[in-house]
Task: structure prediction
Amino acid sequence: MNRGVLLFAGLAVLLGTTACGSATPRTTATRTVTAANEPLATSLVTAQGVWAIVEMGGPASAEENFWQVFVQHGGTWSLATPPGVADNGGLVAAGSPGSLLIGFRPSQGLVFSPLATSTDGGQHWAPSVLGAALASVPDALATGSSGAELALLRNGDVEVSGAGGSWSRLTSEPALAASSAGRECGVTGVDALSFWPNGLKVVAGACERRGVAGVFTDTNGTWQLDGPSVPGGGQVRVLRLSGSTALLASGSAVYAAWHGSSWTVSGAVAGSPVASGFGSNGSAWVLLGGGRAAVISGPGGTWRPLPAVPTRTAALALAGGETDAFAVAGDTLSVWRLSAGAWTKAQVIHVPIAAGSSS
Amino acid sequence: MPGMNSGLNPADPTLVAAFRSALLHQGAIALAVVVFLLLLRATMRAFRGGPAGNQGWLEWSRTLTGGSGEAPARTVLRIGFGLLWVLDGFLQAQPRMAGGLAAQVIEPTASSSPSWVQHVVNWGGTIWSYHPIQAGAASVWIQVGIGAWLLVAVRGPMSRLAGVASLGWGLIVWVFGESFGGIFAPGLTFLFGAPGAVLFYAVAGALIALQDTAWRGPRLGTLLVRGMGLLFAGMAVLQAWPGRGFWQGGADGTLTGMISTMVGTPQPYYLHLIISGASSFTSAHGWAVNLFAVVAMAAIGAGLLTARRGVVRYAVWFGACFCLADWLLVQDLGFLGGLGTDPNSMIPVILLFTAGYLALGPQTAPVTEGVPDTDGMLGVTEVVGATGARGLVTRARGAAASASAQSFAAVSAIAVVLIGAAPMTAAAANRTAADPIIAEAIAGSTVTLDIPAPAFQLTDQDGRPVSLASLHGKVVLLTFLDPVCTTDCPIIGAEFREAGALLGSAGKNVELVAVAANPTYYSTAALRAFDDEEGLGAVPNWRFLTGSLGELRQVWQHYNVTVYNVPAGAMSAHDDLAVVIDGNGTIRQEVSDDPGPGTATTKSSFSALLAGYARQALAGS
Result:
């Protein structure tokens, strides 16, 4: 009998399982969802046109969100999203005098970031690949006038492009924090990249040290803390950095700062940006939530509040003296233009979103 | 829980058809074995010159319901739980059970339990999910077999062994199927089945497995009724415990919520009316209903704890009424709608305390078994003294001839158990790959071909030229992948990698080949990034091919694969196709490799399917 019991027990353990109980039908597919968690909607200006990036479609949790690139030529906006990659994870853009570089953030099974570059205002895109994942910040890419590119990765590494489309590590968040400049600042994060007009590579982030923005320049392999100082004495975080224009957050205030022979820092505008972007000549805008928005014209300017922006405004754009607001509803983009102190609907674009294609 | 949910529709026609086929196949074998055993016994009796006709069967049939001197309490347990196991076995045969049990019953049951419970349950649930057909069929035949075994084996070692089987299988079901009866999860209540219906099956099995002597006095009955009394008393305290929502009526009340879920299950109209009424009443009078339940369970528990026959009789009657009411009004009979696999806990509870009550009274004196039993297994006469081959034949002839009808019936029941268990045991031993039937359910029918594969001349991820001709003599598993795809292609790439691993040493004669399928991103840098992403860079027989867009378009066209860019932020679209090319350059199979839900189970299944095709092609080359 003992042998029989053992035999049965062994058999049962091998068999492993059956079950009792009741349940109503339920089917769940499991997929990893990686969505942008920083405000990536933005706009910028290059020699080829004015660009805006907004999220459209449905919910990101269902992979029904699709980020779109729009470009304005001659006052008219058109769709210019680079093809070939699902962009549910978000888009990151960097402009240079001669081109616009777009990076696709990873989503679902894609763990690295394809890139696309246009030198003709979005009519054609040249594909390339960054073999790692871009960080989820709007200035994770930067392009210099020499054609060099910088990329901020999800793991905090900063990579620089080389010959033949290769990338190599420039620095990392820990390495920067361990440098003399990093210790002086007390680096707590890297959030943005840029090139100064003279070609110096710039890495920016947040500092523990109060009253100083963590903007670092790479001078012959040595990092230097480049400021600027911000009034108020609070901790400062670099929200955005494009060319030599920065947007800084300290407490509940936002400042604009411009790098030249020395820094020029604007007065404060109260609020926490839900989106921000840049126009030409150092101008910038912030969308502050609750219909609030403000623009600043450039070095020496002051923040100017805008009339309450249209419902569902996701981004603004400053183009040729005009201020446009992009309101998104599913696959429809409405462009509102500020005219005589009021918003007027200037254009409606229906985007052919392929719902379900990423799920 | 990573392995539990295959993501497939449980009503998938391929799965349902395979499940039915397995049940029919194993049922036919079981029937053949039973017929064989009947013929064997008849032949042996004729050969030995035993009593004519059906005398033995008639004698045995009279013992089935207690005529053998079996203690009445034991008879109640044996027949009651035998019938329950048979019913559960039939419930396991529901068409959607194979594909649905792991995802729809086991996983939801475990999801509210602590992580260590989920870890344990996931181990068993993954076996089911990976081998749904074998597991589904095994559970049918094991449960039907154990039930039949309990019913036909009245006394003696065979009967006690049936109790052990019930105990063992019951515990397995309790742990893996019921997540320890949910005792580690919040919301535990006797009214809804705590501490797990199958735990009572296991207890009954343990009691049936006891020696006959254990049933001779009232001691076992006292233990049993007091044990049940403790259970009722403990559950009354749990039911009365504040802060658990049971004293609360309305839609937010715990009890109302539980009954409401039962209202939502598909069931006969009149039963729906009854359970809806119970739900409304509980919602309106939640506090009073819980008070009644607490007082009733406490009273039943107290009555049972006295272990005095006169008091226990009333506790049993009241307990039976209470349990039947709960079974109907709260548990909704337990097995209707969804994927019910048993009638829940109330009938087993009634059987147990009824048996305890009967065991308190005078027991029938055990009848000495007719034939001395020295091997403890078959109840046969031992033939001693013969040696060698002649002795073996003589002993076998004697054993078979003198085996009782009970033993033959019990052996038949055990055979039914083993017929279900054997294929599952073999499948469970292979934990590395899921059953290919899951992939077949997703991919649809495979097209078997015998046509020359279109030639191609491309370069691999490292820039080396590769043509179909250069792969001559090897089996080629060919597919088309977008290197920057976010959904299917990373899964397919991983499936190809795993297929290569499953092939083992045979893999040196198989090439795993993908052709870039994106009209924009097809550079070698993109291919290498994909390889790094999917861990394919170190796979020696992996080749990800590309070329100029013109060359790629030609290959896509020749293999009838459509590739195009979808606008507005969507990925490039292409057909998911796998082609099996033998060593002579002939296409043997074409199959969709759309990975479906892309769960661990489906990935493993596709890998097994691809590896199987490669082996077939190797064998045919």
Q: What stands out?
A: The helical segments of chain A are 2-15, 173-178, 180-185. The domain at 42-350 of chain A is CATH 2.130.10.10 (Methylamine Dehydrogenase; Chain H).
